[in-house]
Design goal:
The complex is a heterodimer of chains A (about 350) and B (about 400). Chain A is of the alpha/beta class. Chain A contains eleven helices and eleven strands. Chain A has an eleven-stranded mixed sheet, sandwiched between helices. In chain A, helix 2 packs across helix 5. Chain A is globular, with a radius of gyration of 19 Å. In chain B, helix 3 (about 70-85) runs parallel beside helix 5 (about 135-145), helix 6 crosses helix 12 (about 330-345) and helix 9 packs across helix 10 (about 295-310). The longest helix of chain B has 16 residues, at about 70-85. The mean pLDDT of chain B is about 95. Chain B has helices at about 20-25, 55-60, 70-85, 110-120, 135-145, 160-170, 190-195, 230-235, 265-275, 295-310, 320-325, 330-345, and strands at about 5-10, 15, 35, 45, 95-100, 150-155, 180-185, 220-230, 240-250, 285-290, 315-320, 345-350, 370, 375-385, 390-395. Chain B is an alpha/beta fold and about 400 residues long. Chain B has two domains: about 5-235, 3-Layer(aba) Sandwich (Peroxisomal Thiolase, Chain A, domain 1); about 245-395, Peroxisomal Thiolase, Chain A, domain 1, CATH 3.40.47. Chain B starts with a strand and ends in a 5-residue tail after the last strand. In chain B, strands 1, 2, 5, 6, 7, 8, 9, 10, 11, 14 and 15 form an eleven-stranded mixed sheet that branches. Chain B has a two-stranded antiparallel sheet with strand order 3-4. Chain B has a two-stranded antiparallel sheet with strand order 12-13. The chains are: A alpha/beta (about 350), B alpha/beta (about 400).
Chain lengths: ~350, ~400
């Protein structure tokens, strides 16, 4: 049995619901930018939309869009990864409680503050009674959701699934994370650019161009653990390590972050083309969803946009048939996703 | 694959550890009182707090822990440590071990305390990094030992039950040899006020499945279950406490904070779990209901129970939230542990403070304290915001 990507859709700091990023990406000089919104009227009735935060509107739009691309109506499961959940509403409720006290609070911000509001609202919108879950494991939230979906396919629980990554970045939370040195510093121009994530994938057992060979999440692995995990994933896919044509890494120009990818690629993939995506889509807890989005685009369209090459040039996009996506967070949580052109 | 539970750990307002919890359940002792651990204007809303302060929890853990610590992480550490030791994970370590935890508040207890410091000065920045839910699981896991996989689930009040499903699937698909699963949650001012704006908090001790029910009492705590295959337990020489025989998650897809009138999501979850276990409705000896005590939940859940079970007679039903309060993201595993205790010790945990039947329902909850019954199969429900409905079934372990 295989699991295939039938369709995908994204809203980000690049142009929404299209692949303009591949030809003419928007380049950001400042480390803080919010997503480019789409016309939500196409997807949500404006009265309902008024009550929804940005993260929910984006979720409905990418879900509808991914489903309509492949002509599907309702998935068997809806699984979301989100590092921070509906942080805008969380901040609003917290701020009102702190500044104005406990007397005058309204329920709306609270109702739409829980992390699983996203998956639930998609389910209510699609009238989907199927399996519904939400993963919140920092930088590997999306990969946890993907792993959950693959296990449902393997155990025969579902035939299709909508798997998504969602995170919004408010000005307030950006500033808080800046105190922890998350973002690019003006002084040396190094460090992550913040992004916002809204990506949806419709996955199915039905064959398609791009197959998900496997995914792994690992907690504080050694290089040996990484390599063992990778070899197991390759052997499950019936390939060897040298069949992997390109590695997509979560590099973001932060030195400590990128050193992990340097070590990994030098040790296990010497000379193999390495690609990246976070300089285009920005960093967020669920940015790995863009890693899979870009890898799927490359395999499907047999083209490697030049901006995506991190090191070791690509000789022929045509010959890239297998891409490994490697992402980590704080060098604590790590993830691997293996895609192949089928 | 037969999935066994080989260790449990629990902390809640009715005690630390399995024995204290069992004693409270068998004697009808609960601790529902005004909030003591933080300042709030809602002192009239009673809650089920864990008695120990953060300092006392650190003491329980042997001291020497470094800040930043959050209460959800501390509660989780206490429960995980018990489960870890009972299953002798350290001495007989399987190859790959996962930790899957449910929480929704994460580090909110500190964020709400230090929010102004976050905004105005740099004195409490270390708690910015402990805000998100995933960090909470990292803290709990790293306190106890080495885990190969950790992840966190947040589906509000069904989080811990969904962690059980994810862990079971890790075992079934051969990804890990053991999965320690459950959830942890402390009471915060944030969700106390949130639930209060929804007007679903009772000022009196809650009365699940009673005609006069008027809302829930928030509780707090943590519980974890060690899951492994029967083969793994036998190989490690650890006696299974019971089996996890079935589970399912479905979505009510009705409303963000209310359950549907016909309890469709709950019905699908219970039916799905029965199907997954291969058991029939008449095989269930006890239903540990979600039973929050809100007007909406208990009616909707009660209707779903009637739809599924009334043909062959509804088994004893109770909501142990009448003991522990609603421990939100931890409730799924706290009630799983209570269900396991009911199998091990052969009793039906009581539904406290029941007086009058809900008119629309055909059954009343089991209100006798310490009712002795042979319990082979228990079905336990956990329903979260957004109609996230999860059912787990635990069964007596018999060597095959």
């Amino acid at each position: 049995m295989g699991v295939y990507i039938k369709s995908s859709a994204q809203i980000s700091i690049q142009n929404p619901l299209c692949n303009d990023w591949a030809v003419s990406p928007i380049i950001y000089r400042e480390p803080y930018a919010r997503a480019v919104e789409c016309d939500y009227k196409k997807y949500i009735n404006p009265i309902a939309a008024r009550r929804m935060g940005k993260i929910l509107k984006r979720a409905i739009a990418v879900s509808s869009s991914a489903l309509s691309i492949c002509g599907a109506a309702v998935p068997d499961a809806i699984i979301t990864g989100t590092g921070l959940g509906c942080i805008e509403n969380t901040e609003k409720f917290l701020s009102a409680m702190t500044m104005e006290g406990e007397e005058f609070l309204q329920p709306a911000y609270f109702i739409n503050s829980t992390h699983n509001t996203i998956s639930s609202q998609i389910a209510i919108f699609l009238k989907c009674h199927g399996y519904n879950n939400t993963f919140v494991q920092r930088g590997i939230s999306f990969e946890s959701a993907l792993l959950d979906a693959l296990m449902l396919f393997e155990t025969g629980t579902v035939n299709t699934a909508l798997v998504e990554g969602h995170d919004e970045m408010t000005q307030g939370y950006f500033k808080l994370l800046d105190k922890l040195d998350y973002w690019r510093k003006e002084a040396d121009g190094k460090g992550a650019v913040a992004g916002e994530t809204a990506v949806g994938f419709f996955l199915s057992k039905e064959e398609d161009t791009v197959k998900i060979e496997g995914t792994e999440i690992l907690h504080t692995p050694s290089m040996d653990d990484m390599s063992r995990s990778l070899l197991k994933m390759c052997s499950d896919a019936g390939i060897s390590l040298k069949d992997i044509d390109a590695v997509m890494v979560g590099a973001n120009t932060d030195e400590a972050n990128d050193a992990v990818y340097e070590a990994f690629s030098e040790t296990l993939f010497h000379g193999v083309p390495c690609l990246w995506w976070k300089h285009i889509f920005g960093e967020s807890f669920t940015s790995a969803a863009f890693g899979m989005y870009v890898a799927d685009y490359i395999l499907r369209n047999r083209v490697v946009p030049s901006a995506m090459v991190w090191k070791n040039s690509v000789k022929s996009a045509e010959q890239i048939r297998k891409i490994l996506i490697y992402n980590h967070f704080n060098n604590k949580e790590h993830s691997l996703i293996l895609l192949s052109r089928w | 694959m037969t999935i066994c539970v080989t260790g449990i750990g629990i902390i809640s307002s009715i005690g630390v550890g399995r024995q204290a919890t069992l004693d409270s359940l068998l004697t009808g002792r609960c601790n529902i009182a005004p909030i003591a651990h933080f300042k709030t204007i809602h002192s009239d809303l009673v809650s089920a707090e864990v008695v120990q302060s953060n300092e006392q929890l650190i003491e329980l853990l042997g001291g020497g822990l470094k800040e930043p610590l959050t209460r959800t992480a501390l509660l989780g550490m206490v429960a995980l440590d018990q489960a870890y030791k009972e299953a002798r994970v350290e001495e007989q370590r399987p190859q790959r071990v996962a930790f899957v935890s449910g929480t929704t508040v994460g580090g909110m207890d500190k964020s709400e305390q230090f929010y102004l410091d976050f905004l105005n000065n740099d004195s409490k920045n270390q708690y910015i990094a402990s805000h998100d839910c995933g960090r909470c699981s990292e803290m709990i896991a790293d306190y106890c030992g080495h885990f190969d996989i950790i992840t966190t689930i947040s589906t509000a009040c069904s989080s811990a039950a969904n962690a059980v499903i994810f862990g079971a699937n890790l075992l079934k698909t051969g990804r890990t040899d053991m999965a320690i699963v459950g959830g942890s949650e402390c009471i915060t001012k944030f969700h106390l006020n949130g639930f209060n704006t929804l007007r679903i908090l009772d000022k009196e001790p809650c009365r699940p499945f009673d005609a006069s029910r008027a809302g829930l009492n928030l509780g707090e705590g943590a519980a974890y279950l060690v899951l492994e295959s029967e083969a793994s337990a036998l190989k490690r020489g650890v006696e299974p406490l019971c089996k996890l025989s079935g589970y399912a998650n479905f979505c009510d897809a009705h409303h963000q904070t209310a359950s549907s009138e016909d309890g469709e999501g709950a019905f699908l979850a219970m039916s799905g779990a029965l199907q997954n276990s291969g058991l029939q409705p008449e095989d269930i000896d006890y239903i540990n209901a979600h039973g929050t005590g809100t007007v909406n939940n208990d009616l909707s859940e009660g209707i779903a129970i009637s739809r599924l079970f009334s043909k062959r007679g509804i088994p004893p039903v109770s909501s142990t939230k009448s003991f522990t309060g609603h421990t939100t993201s931890a409730s799924g595993s706290i009630e799983a542990v209570i269900s396991i205790l009911s199998i091990q010790h052969g009793f039906i945990p009581a539904n406290l403070r029941f007086r009058n039947k809900i008119e629309e329902l055909s059954f009343v909850p089991s209100s006798d304290i310490g009712l002795k019954v042979d319990v082979n199969n228990v079905l336990t429900n956990s329903f979260g915001f957004g109609g996230n409905d999860t059912t787990l079934i635990f069964s007596k372990y018999k060597k095959e």
